[in-house]
Write a structure and sequence with these properties.
Layout (H helix, E strand, L loop, with lengths): L2 E8 L6 E5 L36 E6 L2 E11 L19 E13 L4 E7 L12 E6 L3 E8 L4 E9 L20 E4 L5 E6 L3 E7 L6 H8 L9 E8 L7 E7 L7 E7 L15 E7 L9 E8 L5 E4 L7 E4 L3 E5 L4 E5 L26 E6 L2 E5 L4 E10 L2 E12 L5 E5 L3 E5 L5 E10 L2 H11 L16 H17 L3 H7 L1 E11 L7 E6 L9 H5 L2 E7 L6 E5 L6 E7 L3 E7 L12 H4 L5 E6 L3 E5 L5 E2 L12 E7 L4 E6 L2 E6 L2 E7 L4 H6 L6 E7 L2 E6 L4 E7 L4 E5 L2 H4 L5 E9 L19 H5 L11 E8 L4 E5 L4 E6 L8 E3 L1 H4 L7 H19 L3 E7 L9 E6 L4 E8 L17 H9 L5 E5 L19 E7 L2 E6 L5 E6 L2 E6 L6 E7 L7 E6 L3 E6 L12 E5 L3 E5 L8 E12 H7 L19 E13 L8 E7 L4 E13 ...
Parallel strand pairs: 1-87
Antiparallel strand pairs: 1-86, 2-3, 3-4, 4-5, 6-7, 7-8, 8-9, 10-11, 11-12, 12-13, 14-15, 15-16, 16-17, 18-19, 19-20, 20-21, 22-23, 23-24, 24-25, 26-27, 27-28, 28-29, 30-31, 31-32, 32-62, 33-61, 34-35, 35-36, 36-37, 38-39, 39-40, 40-41, 42-43, 43-44, 44-45, 46-47, 47-48, 48-49, 50-54, 51-52, ...
């Protein structure tokens, strides 16, 4: 492996930062909410529902380098009972029955976001304001982004960089900084500040909004809303203000000028000095004058505890700040201060003061907080508890702080309030939650009753969503309230303190991070006979993710493997359709029954005949008894007239059927030109059905339309007048039916009256038409242009030039043509001739189109196009009403303006489409000559919606939150046809036919969640998983899990004292009462259930007290007594007893057997030393497993890594590695090597080579020689490196060593003793280095799949290639795959071009992001031999002309580049 590619396969999911602000809409825009229906039936039950949900801002989330903006959709409880939808997750609270997140935009940035701020726009009138997003990146980069409506995405409004030689003086000589830049924003948006390099504060002044009449005008007029921008910046050196160690800062509310409060430590202290020096922090408030660039100190407060780490600005009208420390909370303002002690460790400053305390003990280190109301803050603690802090105030004077317990929830990494009734808990360690809260004023007793319904805000199990409140908490509330009403200074306070909050979880975002370890095992429904890429979908990745109570196993699968209900052989099949048939009796069915209706017939088209099957219960063939056309193959079938009729279309005609009986028979006309030519006439090539229209495309590129008459249920054929004389050939066409709660496309046309109830106005004559919504016809011509027509009039309402080239945004070329004049249509032909040479070389056409809007209140249509080279264009529609949309007024070419305006009025001038990133889809390897329809839309398969793409690389395109999730399905190879099926035995399932001729009836697994990059199933462990391994022979997964237990404090302290030295502690200064949380370790042996059900714990092996299990591995040892290999489970442990006790650890060996009759696991264990362990082996009762004997061996030092090496057991024990042989009764040492100076993180073995990573001293490369029984050090890396994971990378016959480190880099080394720079072979030489931007915790070596390129070139070298799959702490998964030199050089030159050819979000440079980071440590730059597929994936998103241009510049072709990228995707589709 001299060259490699880095590819991200699953992007980060652990949310680190979140914020809310009006990004994609302003407060004055209609609040995004489902319409509320008038009626007063239920309102009386909800006294609190008068508090309307105000304008709801957007939610912005950041996970590592992934930036997402969401809109919150609120569904209010409809009072009209007829129309009320079932209440969504969390029940009904305060008149709201549901809230969900909908994606606005998603970006993968070339840099990790260090902090996030929302720049409010205070200058503009409140209703029209838009906020901007401020992002900071290491070391000192700031980008400000605003939402651009015309692009429906984020645009960079300013970039500020304080790095490089000009700004070196800001670092004051330091190289390494523990924190990245921290950004905070003034609440009124007048300025913002960023703390860089620890002590430099950059103040960014916001541009003044244009004042005067213009703004006034905008508020009434629908003028554009303005986002805030940065005007200028300057630097404040905090060292000059006598601040040394800044911990946090914030802007205050309620001052005329911006005021920033800085929390800093005057002189540092440490754990050993805390008893003497403990109040070392202080806060200073500076008034910022951005025009004069002055910042006078206006007030300060000192003597704050040393562990204060965060400050919160108290909202108006109270003002001031809260300082959060680990054991206390302090309130300070210019006039008053008060504080609250949280536990016994809180120390008063002078020892005299009595400290007020809440009725319970808690700790607030590592807490996050947000404001629910202007006087109640909510804290999320490190244990996941939610605490409410109430400020009891009179006027602007805060009298005291009150803390009360609320709920348990996910362990949050950030928290933000959205509007006035929602908050979002962003989490790196569990799923992130959107929670609605409601404050009620009154006695707390009824509130507790209400709280019983709400559920614990737990994430993992949806059933456990009930928030419980313990009776003691309720009691406490009541006593607090009585106390308040007695001692409060007026009714005002008592009233305030009696706020009670109820919560309801409304939505959650799935997170699989942090991935500490994973293993690669067989799926339950694996197919042993599969070969090639289909074989890969036999495997799944089982990952240790989460922490503490959010700990779980995540079972990830890159491709979908459905659950087969039944399977038949049916060779020669061409297509398959299911149709409904409505009896007259059930004609009145609407709503839910309509959705749940069973399919009546299944139509299967074979080579030269058609089969018809009844599907009511079982599939029975009824071909003989029905009037369907069965003598030849069928092209399409579907329902018309509200499912009262079936239409079947074959090559030369169509039949309309009522159930089994034909009511009409049609034959299609041939066009006049054909008749003259005397050919056989044209036949139907593709069909699109949208009740009551059917659109046909003929093989000669002409189209015909069948129009249905709902009153008589008959159909007539029309050739649209536009196309009768036209010589333009249609390459693809589809019908789009605009249905749903509101008609969407109509809103994009200019006429205001069209947006209202137009249905009655136009279709007054026949009432049926109103139900169908609007139907549009979308066509693509062979020259690549696209047009949309409204039906039945066939007026062109939208046209796009060169749709085929796949531009980033497409809009109506009638209004936005280059010269912006009506004659442009004439000029186009001459232009086309000019471009002829260029276009001839790609000759790509659109072969299939589909436009669809899935049922949701706010859904926007998607437009899909398949090109003849197999690539897919996905577009998402949006509305943009801009001033430049108006057509040019000057009539230069003398056309009458009247005709012009009449055409333009009906056009969808505000309709635009934005291209959606679809880089996860691997294209077709080769497209066949016959163009069969590959897209099948489904509305409900197991409750999911989207479309299925058949062909050689079948894939599911699922729609969640207005975003497309692409999941391939490779388990059956190519799929010829697909359709949905819903009947008694197959509930919302589907049928597909493989190219081998197998017909399969399937359902999707209900346990997996598909709203993720890969389908995932989470198995809750209620503890932290640390390491997992796969026992292949028995299909078991042993996992190390630790669960926090509360132990008596004196017991914990006793274990930390070395027994020989005796007790040196004096009793008077130690409080032995109380408990202390201690992690208890165990190894759980987990097994996936057979029926894709829940996972079961088959056996549990507990560790001794204060013993931590560090590693678990399945090892194959050669038993020297019986001369046979044995597969055993090996566990390495360490006793963690503090620094006074010498370290020791144990190695344990277990044999695991599975009882064949009941499938239970036996764990037999070999031992001498510890017979008492037998009592410790506990097993879950239904599977009582028998334990024979135990073997364990105690060694000095922690056993941190284990591996089997040619039948021996290699153990890393403290500062040495020892090789043991296994006699069947005990382990005997054979060889040892004192190699790592500190602690072994990972061991990898290939043949007789050992790769070892040390926690601080980089990697070592050793070999084992059997004959002399010796371990030899071959070479090592002499640099210091904090390793996290290591693995061998194999490319043919070359062996490389890969290591990931604490600074988020990856390095690849090689051993070359012949080269002079390797110091006679002692030193490992660098082969590549790369900055990943995430901590890689595990590498897994997997063989690359053979791709088309490999199969053609004869070379055995290609077969033995392995890629490394890796997992990170952010929840992302990627791989490093070897490349041959030719491909590498091509992709590397493409990468250099793309750095400049693409506009990067937030102005980040991908090259600087991927540079190795050493943070000031000496490092000689290594070769740049890794290409970054994160950047290369943008190549497919460029327009075709630019792709061809760039390819030409680097001396290759677009086809060659696409083939290389596609081979890489196929070669690494491991799962």
């Amino acid at each position: 492996m001299s060259f490699a590619a880095y590819k991200m396969m699953h992007h980060a999911t652990g949310i680190e930062h979140c914020a809310s602000g009006f990004i994609s809409h302003s407060p004055a825009d209609a609040t995004p909410r489902a319409p509320e229906l008038p009626g007063d039936g239920l309102d009386s039950d909800w006294p609190s529902s008068t508090k309307l949900v105000g304008p709801v801002p957007n939610l912005i989330t950041v996970a590592a380098n992934v930036l997402e903006v969401y809109t919150v959709r609120i569904q209010e409880e409809s009072s009209n009972l007829m129309n009320s939808k079932p209440a969504k997750r969390g029940g009904v609270l305060a008149g709201v029955s549901g809230a969900s997140l909908e994606l606005v935009c998603h970006y993968r940035l070339h840099g990790n976001v260090e902090s996030l701020g929302v720049l409010a726009n205070g200058g503009v009138n409140e209703g029209r304001r838009r906020d901007s997003i401020m992002l900071t990146f290491r070391d000192a980069k700031i980008s400000v982004l605003e939402f651009d409506d015309s692009l429906h995405g984020l645009r960079t409004s300013s970039m500020h960089c304080f790095e490089g030689p000009d700004w070196l003086h800001l670092k004051k000589g330091r190289e390494c900084f523990s924190k990245g830049p921290l950004a905070k924003v003034d609440p009124l948006g007048r300025c913002s500040a960023v703390l860089v390099y620890g002590l430099q504060m950059i103040v960014l002044k916001t541009a003044e909004a244009s004042s005067g009449l213009v703004v006034e005008d905008n508020t009434f007029n629908s003028g554009p809303s303005v986002a805030s921008r940065i005007e200028s910046s300057y630097i404040v050196g905090l060292q000059d203000l006598d601040m040394k160690h800044v911990k946090d800062f914030i802007f205050l509310h309620g001052y005329i000028e911006p005021v920033v409060v800085i929390l800093h430590e005057q002189e540092l202290t440490w754990a050993g000095r805390v008893s003497w020096k403990h109040h070392t922090c202080m806060i200073s408030a500076l008034s910022i004058n951005t025009t004069l660039k002055q910042h006078p100190l206006i007030w300060s407060a000192n003597n704050l505890p040393h562990d204060a780490y965060k400050i919160l600005a108290v909202p108006s009208p109270i003002g001031g700040v809260l300082v959060i420390a680990a054991n206390t909370i302090h309130y300070h303002s210019q006039s008053t201060s008060c504080f609250l002690a949280l536990n016994n460790f809180a120390v008063p400053v002078d020892g005299s003061q009595e400290m007020p305390r809440p009725g319970f003990i808690t700790e607030l280190d590592a807490a996050n907080a947000t404001w629910l109301t202007n006087d109640v803050a909510m804290f999320s603690t490190k244990t996941g508890e939610l605490l409410l802090l109430t400020l009891v105030y009179d006027g602007r004077i805060v009298q005291r702080l009150e803390l009360s317990k609320s709920r348990a929830s996910v362990l949050a990494s950030d928290i933000t309030t959205i509007g006035n009734s929602l908050f979002f808990l962003g989490s790196r360690l569990g799923d992130s939650l959107l929670v609605q809260y409601n404050s009620e004023v009154g006695t707390p007793t009824p509130a507790t009753g209400a709280k019983e319904e709400v559920g614990d805000i737990e994430t993992d199990a949806p059933l456990a969503k009930r928030l419980r409140r313990s009776p003691s908490d309720t009691l406490k509330d009541i006593t607090n309230n009585e106390e308040l009403s007695l001692f409060g200074t007026g009714p005002n306070n008592a009233h305030l303190a009696q706020k009670t909050f109820s919560f309801a979880v409304r939505d959650s975002l799935l997170n699989v991070g942090p991935l500490k370890d994973f293993s690669y095992g067989l799926r339950i429904n694996a197919d042993p006979n599969a070969t090639g890429s289909a074989k890969q979908s036999n495997y799944e990745l089982v990952c240790c993710s989460g922490h503490g109570k959010n700990g779980s196993l995540s079972v990830l699968q890159q491709s979908i493997r459905p659950e087969t209900i039944t399977q038949e052989s049916l060779p020669g099949c061409k297509g398959i359709w299911t149709v409904y048939h409505k009896n007259l009796r059930s004609d009145s069915l609407k709503g839910a029954a309509y959705e749940d209706e069973y399919h009546a017939y299944l139509i299967i088209s074979l080579e030269n005949r058609t089969m018809v099957l009844q599907t009511a219960t079982n599939l029975e063939e009824v071909t003989e008894n029905v009037d369907y056309y069965v003598q030849g193959s069928t092209v399409a079938a579907g329902n018309l007239f509200e499912r009262r009729r079936v239409i079947q279309i074959f090559a030369r005609g169509a039949r309309i059927l009522d159930g089994a009986f034909m009511t009409q028979d049609l034959t299609f006309k041939t066009s006049n030109t054909e008749a003259v030519a005397g050919s056989e006439g044209t036949i139907v090539s593709s069909v699109s059905i949208a009740d009551p229209y059917v659109l046909l495309r003929m093989t000669d590129g002409s189209i015909q339309l069948l129009v249905g008459d709902p009153s008589t249920c008959t159909v007539s054929v029309i050739i649209p007048p536009v196309f009768e004389s036209s010589d333009k050939l249609v390459s693809a066409c589809t019908l789009y039916q605009d249905k749903g709660p509101e008609v969407w496309l109509r809103k994009t046309s200019t006429d205001a009256w069209l947006a209202t109830g137009i249905g009655e106005a136009i279709d007054g004559t026949d009432g049926m038409m109103h139900d169908h919504g609007d139907v549009y016809c979308v066509l693509c011509y062979e020259n690549g242009n696209l047009e949309m027509f409204d039906l039945p009039n066939f007026n062109c309402v939208f046209s796009v030039d060169k749709f085929v080239s796949g531009k980033g945004h497409i809009l109506d070329s009638f209004f936005h043509s280059p010269v912006n004049d009506p004659v442009n249509h004439v000029k186009k032909n001459s232009e086309a001739n000019g471009h002829g040479r260029k276009e001839a070389n790609h000759g790509i056409q659109v072969v299939e189109l589909s436009m669809q809007r899935w049922a949701s209140d706010h859904g926007r249509p998607f437009l899909f196009g398949i090109l003849s080279d197999g690539s897919i264009l996905c577009y998402h529609a949006y509305i943009y009403e801009g001033s430049e949309n108006a057509p040019a007024v000057e009539d230069v070419y003398g056309q009458s303006s009247i005709s012009r305006s009449s055409t333009s009025s009906s056009r969808l001038r505000n309709l635009r489409f934005v291209r959606v990133f679809s880089d996860t889809y691997a294209r077709e390897e080769s497209t066949s000559g016959i163009s069969s329809q590959r897209i099948t839309v489904f509305k409900n398969v197991g409750g999911l919606q989207g479309l299925f793409l058949s062909g050689t690389r079948p894939a599911w395109f699922m729609i969640f939150r207005e975003r497309i999730r692409i999941h391939p399905q490779v388990c059956d190879g190519p799929i010829v046809a697909f359709t949905v099926l819903h009947n008694v035995n197959c509930n919302h399932g589907f049928i597909y036919i493989t190219s081998q001729g197998a017909l399969k009836i399937c359902q999707l697994s209900a346990l997996s969640s598909y709203d993720s990059c890969w389908p995932v199933q989470k198995v809750s462990l209620k503890g932290t998983p640390h390491q997992i391994t796969y026992f292949a022979e028995k299909n078991l997964y042993p996992v190390i899990v630790s669960v926090p237990m509360l132990k008596p404090l004196n017991q914990v302290i006793q274990s930390l004292i070395d027994q020989e030295v005796g007790n040196q502690f004096e009793h008077d200064n130690l409080n032995f009462e109380g408990t202390y949380p201690v992690e208890e370790f165990e190894v759980r042996i987990m097994e996936p259930e057979k029926s894709n059900g829940p996972w079961q714990t088959k056996a549990t092996i507990p560790m001794q007290s204060s013993e931590n299990a560090l590693t678990v591995r399945v090892v194959t040892l050669y038993n020297t007594t019986t001369q046979e290999n044995e597969t055993l489970l090996a566990v390495g442990t360490a006793y963690v007893q503090g620094e006074d006790v010498a370290a020791r650890g144990r190695v344990l060996l277990y044999s695991v057997e599975k009882n064949s009759d009941s499938g239970q696991a036996k764990v037999a264990v070999f031992c001498f030393a510890y017979p008492q362990l037998l009592d410790n082996l506990k097993f879950n009762h239904p599977y009582s497993s028998q334990v024979s004997e135990v073997y364990s061996k105690e060694l000095k030092g922690a056993i941190s890594a284990l591996a089997s090496l040619q039948g021996h057991l290699l153990i890393a024990s403290g500062p040495k590695i020892i090789l043991h042989k296994w006699t069947g009764l005990e382990l005997n040492g054979v060889a040892f090597y004192d190699v790592p100076p500190l602690y072994v993180v990972s061991l990898n073995i290939v043949k007789n080579f050992i790769l070892l990573g040390d926690i601080h001293k980089s990697i070592y490369f050793l070999s084992w020689k059997e004959q002399g029984s010796q371990l030899n050090l071959l070479a090592k890396d002499f640099g210091s490196l904090d390793c996290l994971a290591t693995e061998f990378l194999i490319d043919g016959s070359t062996l490389s060593l890969t290591v990931s480190d604490e600074q988020k880099n990856v390095q690849i080394f090689y051993y070359a003793p012949k080269q002079s720079e390797s110091w006679k072979g002692q030193k490992l030489l660098p082969r590549a280095e790369f900055h990943v931007g995430a901590h890689i915790t595990k590498f897994l070596r997997l063989q690359l799949l053979a791709t088309s390129a490999d199969r053609t070139s004869a070379g055995s070298d290609k077969t033995n290639r392995f890629g490394l799959l890796f997992g990170t702490l952010d929840g992302s998964i990627g791989c490093i795959a070897p490349l041959d030199e030719l491909t590498f050089r091509r992709l590397q030159s493409l990468q250099k071009k793309l750095v400049d050819a693409i506009s990067h979000v937030a102005g980040l440079n991908p090259r600087s992001f991927r540079h190795f980071r050493s943070y000031g440590k000496a490092h000689r730059p290594g070769p740049d031999s890794i290409v970054d597929c994160e950047l290369l994936s943008h190549y497919e998103m460029l327009p075709l002309e630019e792709q061809a241009d760039i390819a030409q510049q680097i001396g290759t072709t677009r086809t060659q580049i696409m083939s290389n990228l596609n081979d890489l995707t196929l070669g690494t589709s491991f799962l």
